[in-house]
Design brief:
The chain has eight helices and eleven strands. The protein is of the alpha/beta class. The chain folds into two domains: 5-144, Rossmann fold; 147-292, L-2-Hydroxyisocaproate Dehydrogenase, Chain A, domain 2 (Alpha-Beta Complex). The strands form three sheets. The protein has a six-stranded parallel beta sheet with strand order 3-2-1-4-5-6, sandwiched between helices. A three-stranded antiparallel beta sheet has the order 9-10-11. A two-stranded antiparallel sheet has the order 7-8.
Length: 293
């Protein structure tokens, strides 16, 4: 039987919660957490190891600061980076995390050059592109979590309104995200209010509890499961485009099929003219951030 090993670089709230969600939802043999703060990674691993037993799992959980622990991992989830601090501009955050990402990718490539990379660090679309370039990997092997998280927030609203829909979010994981209604007609709801609430939900959560981690962790586990189980599941993720939607050389959220090789294919939905304009505007914003670093 092929062993399944999942690595997490970054053992903070997002990384450790994602490891727990993965432990609970994905059939794997080993989970490894890596962090510069070794005690944090080791402590989280010890806690998660006991959690595995309590939930009936047989996965081994290890932690530390040595990247060699990641050896033979199938998937690497990267949340390493800093959160935006008071007085810090978005550009400052982008530059700082881009430098961190390049160092992480170098270390990961030295240990597990064949692993699929799942990016979480913000701004995630920019970091996905940075990781893609720094790793030298094919575009299908590097994907970002952003749009799946935004889509979860959208679908929660629709559930509360008792609306069944295949609507989803594409574009930047940020203010320029684009909500599309999908193939099914949505009637009897205030779509503009839904758009506004979806865009503002993240900041509201941060204002109330300083960070959001349960939802992104669940989205990460879903992506990891789709990869290791070769599900070819449709999940909106950030991926480098090669002409889809008229866009190239930018990582941006789009619907895609996710399987054992990462992104099996990018799905090109039939967007309205306004949706396509919004998506291209979003791509321009991401490209602008990339040029600034």
């Amino acid at each position: 039987m092929v062993m399944v090993k999942i690595g997490f670089v970054g053992a903070g709230r997002i990384g450790s919660t994602s490891a727990y969600a993965t432990l609970y939802d994905v059939d794997c043999d080993e989970i490894v957490l890596i962090d510069l703060v070794e005690d944090l990674a080791v402590g989280e691993a010890m806690d998660l190891g006991a959690a595995a037993i309590a939930t009936g799992k047989s996965a081994i959980v290890e932690g530390g600061s040595d990247y060699s622990l990641l050896s033979d991992s199938n998937v690497i989830v990267i949340s390493a980076g800093i959160a935006r601090k008071p007085g810090m501009t978005r550009l400052d955050l982008t530059r700082t995390n881009a430098n961190i990402m390049c160092d992480v990718i170098k270390r990961v490539n030295e240990t597990v050059p064949d692993a699929i990379l799942v990016l979480v660090t913000n701004p995630v679309d920019v970091m996905t592109y940075v990781a893609y370039k720094a790793s030298g990997k094919a575009r299908n092997e590097v994907l970002g979590m952003g749009s799946s998280h935004d889509t979860a927030r959208l679908k929660e609203q629709l559930l509360r309104l008792n609306v069944k829909s295949d609507a989803l979010v594409i574009g930047e994981h940020g203010d320029s995200m684009t909500l599309i209604k999908g193939q099914k007609e949505i009637e009897g709801v205030d779509w503009n209010k839904i758009v506004q609430t979806t865009k503002e939900k993240g900041m509201e959560i941060i204002r109330r509890k300083s960070a959001t981690y349960y939802a992104p962790a669940s989205c990460i586990a879903k992506i990891v499961k789709a990869i290791v189980s070769d599900e070819d599941a449709m999940i909106p993720v950030s991926v480098v485009l090669e002409g889809e939607y008229g866009l190239r050389d930018v990582a941006i959220g789009v619907p895609a099929l996710i399987g054992k090789n990462g992104v099996s294919s990018v799905l090109e939905y039939d967007l309205t003219e306004e949706e396509l304009i919004q998506l291209k505007r979003s791509a321009d914003i991401i490209k602008g951030m990339l040029k600034s670093i």
